[in-house]
């Protein structure tokens, strides 16, 4: 065999895990997994199809791979993931360069699909999205000190703006035994930061064990020889007192909570089909700050949902001024076909929604700059991720920084600092929204 197969994963880190599983299956079947598509026998593009920006990125990458094929620098192209699940017919009709498709219910069909594509066929595998195999080996693609640990697939929530349930199926918790076994294997391989992911980690166990089991899972994970455990994403309506207390009590769980609220106006929340209201969100954030020392709160926000007028938008802005959340991702509403929100009256013009995103982003930048300034003079634990040639110093993250979405700490050191090492850094300044620091006697401490 020995044919070379390259993988490109787009979108969220849940998608990344699926791609890592496919790569492991392909390698186990005797193929050679390579980093670059150029010169490969096959490139697998694992796509996101969540919102317009993600779809555009996926189509752009597919077209780029198609150009490699046309120039003779790539032989075959296989498209998997959410875009293929959502637009199976359209891809088949409009992108003839694509040699095969896999839906989100068929990641484990990757080996027969690869075999069929390389033999000249055009496979289309679209299995049941509500019954998928989430265990098995992975070719971890993150740096060796960090790994994502997916604890569930699919979603219960049915938010009015979201297509995830139609692409990924209903919520399905993995067994606790399989999660713990995978976590142990990752830690044995050198992982020091486990990032638990699902569309909604707070509901872990509700389907399989008929009760919310995330606190128990966390307590058992904390027995492993791991340094940091991080959680994405904690939905506000299921963030229980038991879970808050577990996060506060367990030293290995970083006091970083990612709670996607989307909005705070009660009418907009109701239109979004979100559980709870502004009073609940306000009370939850108060409890988090009271009970988890030094907690950093991250959230996700949507501007421009149908029905959001200036009053509703100003209510959101005022809430953010009062709460001063340390981290936030701000997104423009995308009217996705097939969702209730796409058919709602009072659609907000895209240019108005874009302006609101810019205003909230500016507001949040001021909050985050002030928080960065408040950290100066402190010695913080930093996970070194290597030497940054452009900055001329080392780069890393604190417990308050999730990879790829939050900030970076740049720091100098008297000696060499190996990547993957936790080091004490004195924060001395800020630059372009990032924190700067130094280690004076690293060699002595080593």
Helical percentage: 25-40%
Strand content: 15-25%
Number of strands: 19
Strand order of the largest sheet: 2-1-3-4-5-6
Q: Rounded to an integer, what's the Rg over CA atoms?
A: 23 Å
Distance between the termini: 47 Å
Unreliable spans are none
Q: What is the number of helical segments per DSSP (H or I, 4+ residues)?
A: 14
Average pLDDT number: 95
Which outline best applies?
A: globular
The description of the largest β-sheet is: 6 strands, parallel
**What structural category do the secondary elements indicate?**
alpha/beta
Write the layout of secondary structure elements.
Layout: E1 4-9, H1 13-28, E2 32-34, E3 42-47, H2 52-70, E4 76-81, H3 82-86, H4 88-94, E5 100-102, H5 110-118, E6 124-125, E7 146-150, E8 152-153, H6 164-168, E9 172-173, H7 176-188, E10 193-197, H8 214-221, E11 228-232, H9 241-249, E12 253-258, H10 266-271, H11 278-291, E13 296-303, H12 310-323, E14 327-332, H13 350-374, E15 379-388, E16 393-397, E17 409-413, E18 422-431, E19 434-439, H14 442-445
Parallel strand pairs: 1-2, 1-3, 3-4, 4-5, 5-6, 7-10, 10-11, 11-12, 12-13, 13-14, 17-19
Antiparallel strand pairs: 8-9, 15-16, 15-18, 16-17, 18-19
Helix pairs in contact: 8-9, 12-13
Describe the structure.
The protein has helices spanning 13-28, 52-70, 82-86, 88-94, 110-118, 164-168, 176-188, 214-221, 241-249, 266-271, 278-291, 310-323, 350-374, 442-445, and strands at residues 4-9, 32-34, 42-47, 76-81, 100-102, 124-125, 146-150, 152-153, 172-173, 193-197, 228-232, 253-258, 296-303, 327-332, 379-388, 393-397, 409-413, 422-431, 434-439. It is of the alpha/beta class and 446 residues long. The strands form 4 sheets. Strands 2-1-3-4-5-6 form a 6-stranded parallel beta sheet, with helices on both faces. It starts with a strand and ends with a helix.
């Amino acid at each position: 065999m020995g044919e070379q197969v390259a993988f490109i994963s787009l979108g969220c880190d849940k998608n990344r895990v699926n791609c890592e599983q496919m790569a492991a299956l392909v390698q186990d079947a005797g193929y050679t997994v390579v980093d670059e598509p150029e010169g490969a026998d096959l490139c697998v593009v694992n796509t996101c199809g969540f919102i317009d920006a993600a779809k555009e990125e996926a189509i752009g990458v597919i077209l780029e791979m198609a150009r490699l094929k046309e120039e003779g620098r790539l032989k075959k192209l296989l498209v998997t993931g959410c875009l293929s699940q959502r637009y199976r017919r359209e891809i088949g009709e409009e992108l003839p360069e694509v040699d095969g498709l896999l839906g989100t219910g068929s990641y484990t069909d990757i080996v027969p699909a690869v075999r069929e594509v390389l033999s000249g066929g055009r496979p289309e595998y679209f299995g049941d999205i509500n019954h998928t195999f989430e265990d098995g080996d992975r070719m971890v693609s993150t740096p060796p000190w960090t790994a994502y640990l997916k604890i569930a697939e699919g979603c219960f929530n049915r938010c009015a703006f979201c297509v995830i349930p139609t692409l990924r199926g209903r919520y399905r918790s993995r067994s606790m035994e399989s999660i713990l076994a995978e976590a142990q294997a990752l830690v044995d391989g050198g992982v020091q930061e486990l990032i638990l992911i699902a569309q909604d980690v707070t509901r872990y166990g509700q389907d399989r064990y008929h009760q919310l089991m995330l606190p128990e899972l966390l307590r058992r994970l904390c027995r492993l020889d791991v340094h940091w455990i991080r959680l994405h994403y904690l939905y506000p309506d299921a963030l229980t007192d038991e879970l808050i207390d577990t996060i506060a009590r367990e030293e290995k769980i970083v006091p970083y909570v990612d709670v996607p609220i989307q909005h705070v106006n009660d009418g907009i929340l109701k239109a979004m089909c979100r559980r709870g209201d502004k009073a609940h969100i306000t009370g939850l954030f108060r409890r988090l700050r009271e009970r988890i020392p030094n907690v950093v709160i991250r959230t996700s926000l949507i501007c421009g949902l149908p029905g959001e007028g200036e009053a509703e938008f100003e209510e959101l802005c005022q809430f953010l001024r009062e709460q001063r959340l340390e981290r936030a991702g701000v997104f423009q509403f995308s009217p996705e076909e097939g969702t209730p929100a796409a058919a709602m009256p009072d659609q907000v013009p895209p240019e108005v929604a874009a302006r609101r995103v810019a205003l909230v982003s500016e507001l949040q930048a001021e909050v985050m700059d002030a928080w960065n300034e408040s950290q100066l003079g402190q010695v913080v634990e930093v996970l070194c991720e290597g030497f940054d040639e452009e900055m001329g110093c080392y780069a890393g993250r604190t417990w308050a920084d999730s990879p790829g979405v939050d900030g970076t700490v740049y720091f100098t050191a008297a000696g060499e600092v190996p990547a993957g090492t936790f080091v004490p850094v004195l924060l001395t300044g800020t630059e372009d929204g990032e924190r700067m620091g130094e280690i004076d006697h690293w060699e002595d401490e080593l």
